[in-house]
Design goal:
The protein has helices at 61-69, 108-118, 123-136, 152-165, 182-199, 210-216, 250-273; strands spanning 3-5, 17-28, 35-46, 50-54, 76-81, 84-85, 93-96, 170-174, 202-207, 219-224, 229-236. By secondary structure, the protein is an alpha/beta fold. A hairpin with a 2-residue loop joins strand 5 and strand 6 (84-85). The chain binds adenosine-5'-triphosphate and magnesium ion. Adenosine-5'-triphosphate (ATP) binds at residues 28-29, 35, 37, 55, 57-63.
Length: 274
Amino acid sequence: MLIEPYACGTHCSIEEAKLAFQNVSKIYGAGADSVTALTPMDLMVRKGDFLCIVGPSGCGKTTLLNLTAGFDQPTSGKIMIDGVEISKPGAERGVVFQQGALFNWMTVLENVAFGPRATGHSASVAREMAMETLQMVGLKDFAKKYPYQLSGGMQQRVGIARALTNDPEVLLMDEPFAALDQQTREVLLEEIRLLWKRTGKTILWITHSIEEALFLATHIVVMSPRPGRIRAAFQSGFGRSDDPLISVTPEFVAAKRHIFELLKSSQKDEVQIQ
Ligand SMILES: Nc1ncnc2c1ncn2[C@@H]1O[C@H](COP(=O)(O)OP(=O)(O)OP(=O)(O)O)[C@@H](O)[C@H]1O
Ligand SMILES: [Mg+2]
């Protein structure tokens, strides 16, 4: 099997970590109605890591991503990027949401140029930057269209282009391909893998799909539901493989089964708690 357990909270020092999560928890609301979305967790992500977070619905994946994006604050602990505590969104973190999240009243080009405009680039420079990333995701010819004139897969590419345009060091992706058909997904997954290999960006990728995580990741964190916590963490060799048929190898299938069984047993735990 090409996956090995690792101590995700201590595998590198804070100085070496691109992202460091220390004792991070999140409780929504207060009193009897409060929901513990995340119990205190530690996690270190090195520069260039492709970290996939896998877990069932409601285990706190989006919560973790929103905290990392700076859209919300943890209840305890802190999240650091390059040793600096995150307190708000920043241009060094690009976010791709599960569903489009595009501005429907803007053209594709305007959507993608929005980020560089917001970070102070002139309109012409922002347009140039946007055209470059649109070319990268194969949508240069659709720059003047509106989101509703594109397919779901193309809209997701625009979302990715938008996140890439400011050339962020870290990409935060919340199940970006969950709504896509299998073929489009496979094509885009391969593109993301190539992009990651070419740019060496640090990626935090959330997914329900064990197969997707194994295909992409250098590190996989498996979460358990209610209250959300890290159940297991693995280093994985599949993400760096160049074999296009890696997902049908016996090692890959064995790793998939191993994580599947982990997830299944944590669902049983949840049923017993209730
Ligand atoms: N703004 C909020 N206010 C109150 N509770 C919330 C809020 N956001 C999330 N929660 C709760 O926190 C828990 C974790 O939610 P979260 O959206 O992080 O899960 P998830 O793992 O992303 O699930 P899914 O796979 O379905 O997207 C859930 O129980 C949810 O009800
Ligand atoms: Mg979610």
